[in-house]
Each structure stands twice: as C-alpha cells, then as structure tokens.
C-alpha cells in the first residue's frame, strides 16, 4: 500500500454532485460530523470494473443516515451512478470505494437540524487487507477489552462513524501485541465480531456465526452465508459464548476489506484453516468477479 497520505494523493473524488480534484475535497474543521460523529459510510470493492453489490451498499448508506436522523439528498440510483463515475474517472478496475455522508457546519452543537448533508465518494487501489502470505496461513486475533454496546444505547444497525471508535482502539492494542485484529464480545459477554469484520466458526461440518443483533449484519457476511448454503453447508446463526472457542475446528472472518480471511489463533485458542474455509474463500472470489468475465 502506498505510503502517501490520503489527503495528498492524486485523482478525483465525487463531492456533492460534482467531480473535484482529490486534494481539494475538503471540509471545514467545524463540521458537525467531525465533532459529534454524525457521519455514515460504506466500504465497497470493485472487481474488474464492476462494484460488487453496489445497490445493496447504497441502500444501506441511505438507511444508516435515516437511523442517524438525516437524509442523504441523493437517490440510491444516483449514488450508484456517482460511484461508477468516479471509478471510471480514476481509471480503476480493481479498487476500494468509500462513500461517506455527514452533517455540515451551519450549526455547532448537539442539535443540528439545519445543517447541510454532504456526500462524497472516493476510490483507490487497495490490495489484500491483511498480508497475503500471512492470510493463507491464518491471521492471529487478540481478545478486545471493549465490547459492542447494547443496541438500546447505540444505533448498532447503522454503519456509523462513531461506532468505530472502540474498534480503532482495540485494533491498535492488538497490533501492538503482534496480532492482526481483535475479537469483540457484546455487552452481555457473548462473541460478537472483529473490529471491522464478522466472524465464523466450524465444528463437525457445521458453520456457526453470532446473531447480528448488536453489530452490523455485513453484506459480505450475508453473501458468505448464501454461498455456504448453496454448497449444502448447515449455517447456525446463534448466540456463541467465549467458552465455546476451544471447541471449534476452523475460524474465518468476512468483510468487504477482509473478504474471506482464515484465522489461526484467537488468544490462546488455535484453529487450522481447512476445507470449509478454503471452499468459501474460493467461492467468494468467484462470486465477486464480473459475470461477463466469469462466463
């Protein structure tokens, strides 16, 4: 990955309805989204020039904004078109996309009903989220100190910027100890997710994954569940307690950035990337390829 800071790169960003030079896509320091977390975003990937499940991501972006009590002033179709436009303008085929919406700077206080809602879309080349050589062996994951909050205390169904604060802290702590990521429990002490990816386990040929009721039900998560069922695997979405971790055979995480990544260790517990993980890795990579190329 390039060491060039993100604000100093070249290219184009779609910003409030028009393409602007990358370095000019700025916002004011007194923007509400910066101070109060009134911001939502998506993480998407394009493969071979086609954005995987673009409309589902645009729909979720709109829904996340509604949960945070603001409306993005563009339709799902307009957002889809804007993503295609900036991807083409930047001349990228395999890329990461980041649509982000936020409240502007008209009011500075908790209440911000009159603030302009902004939307920007950036794209950039981003290879594997984890080191490719390590990824095939399985990444090592620590246990996070912070927990996913009770959905009665936070808008857990939204992909909201503020919900990632504890993820950044937890990932930093894990990386300082030599791990690639951290596994978070929920507010009741049950297995939830990693800092930016959903988690799956296998035991006796059955795939287990936590019920997504206090964390994001990832689009990649749903895709992998569908692929697993297509293969005839049984998928159990249920409560998983930490004391079950030693009983599983395989473990993998899923996300737009992570795709399908095997896990070899969670704290003291070890796993061996096996047939189910490898099959779903291959099936997912086949699924995201443009259908014209796949044919």
Averaged pLDDT = 94
Shape: globular
* The CATH superfamily title of the largest domain: D-amino Acid Aminotransferase, subunit A, domain 2
What share of residues is helical? 25-40%
Number of alpha- plus pi-helical segments: 8
CATH topology-level name of the largest domain: D-amino Acid Aminotransferase, Chain A, domain 2
Order of helices and strands: EEHEEEHHEEHEHEEEEHEEEEHH
Derived structural class = alpha+beta
Residues in β-strands, percent = 25-35%
* Domains, number: 2
Describe the structure in brief.
The chain is α+β, with helices and mostly antiparallel strands and 295 residues long. 27% of the residues lie in helices and 27% in strands.
Give a structural overview:
The chain is of the alpha+beta class and 295 residues long. The chain has two domains: 6-124, Aminotransferase class 4, branched-chain amino acid transferase, N-terminal domain (D-amino Acid Aminotransferase, Chain A, domain 1, 2-Layer Sandwich); 132-291, D-amino Acid Aminotransferase, subunit A, domain 2 (D-amino Acid Aminotransferase, Chain A, domain 2, Alpha-Beta Barrel), CATH 3.20.10.10. The chain is 27% helix and 27% strand. The protein contains eight helices and 16 strands. The chain has helices at 32-36, 54-67, 76-89, 132-137, 165-176, 219-230, 275-288, 291-294; strands at residues 12-15, 18-21, 39-41, 44-47, 50-51, 95-103, 117-124, 139-143, 181-185, 191-194, 198-203, 206-210, 234-238, 250-255, 259-266, 269-270. Strands 8, 9, 10, 11, 12, 13, 14, 15 and 16 form a nine-stranded mixed β-sheet that branches. A hairpin with a 2-residue loop joins strand 1 and strand 2 (18-21). Helix 2 crosses helix 3. The two termini are 31 Å apart.
């Amino acid at each position: 990955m390039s060491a060039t800071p993100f604000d100093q790169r070249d290219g184009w960003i779609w910003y409030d309805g028009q393409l602007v030079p990358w370095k000019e896509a700025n916002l004011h320091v007194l923007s509400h989204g910066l101070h109060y977390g009134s911001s939502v975003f998506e993480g998407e990937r394009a493969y071979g020039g086609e954005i995987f499940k673009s409309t589902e991501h645009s729909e979720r972006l709109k829904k996340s904004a509604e949960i945070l009590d603001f409306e993005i002033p563009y339709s799902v179709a307009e957002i889809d078109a804007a993503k295609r436009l900036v991807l083409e303008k930047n001349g990228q085929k395999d890329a990461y996309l980041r649509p982000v919406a936020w409240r502007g700077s008209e009011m500075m206080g908790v209440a911000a009903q009159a603030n302009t809602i902004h939307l920007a879309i950036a794209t950039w080349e981003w290879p594997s989220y984890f080191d490719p050589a390590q990824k095939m062996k399985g990444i090592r994951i620590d246990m996070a100190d912070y927990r996913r909050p009770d959905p009665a205390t936070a808008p857990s169904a939204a992909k909201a910027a503020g919900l990632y604060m504890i993820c950044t802290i937890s990932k930093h702590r894990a990386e300082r100890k030599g791990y690639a990521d951290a596994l978070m429990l929920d507010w009741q002490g049950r297995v939830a997710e990693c800092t930016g990816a959903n988690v799956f386990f296998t035991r006796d040929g059955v795939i287990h994954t936590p019920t997504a009721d206090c964390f994001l039900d990832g689009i990649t998560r749903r895709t992998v569940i569908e692929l697993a069922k297509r293969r005839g695997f049984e998928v159990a979405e249920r409560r998983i307690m930490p004391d079950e971790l030693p009983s599983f055979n395989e473990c993998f995480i899923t996300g737009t950035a992570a795709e399908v990544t095997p896990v070899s260790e969670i704290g003291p517990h070890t796993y061996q990337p096996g047939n189910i993980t490898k099959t779903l890795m291959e099936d997912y990579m086949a699924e995201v390829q443009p259908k014209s190329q796949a044919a």
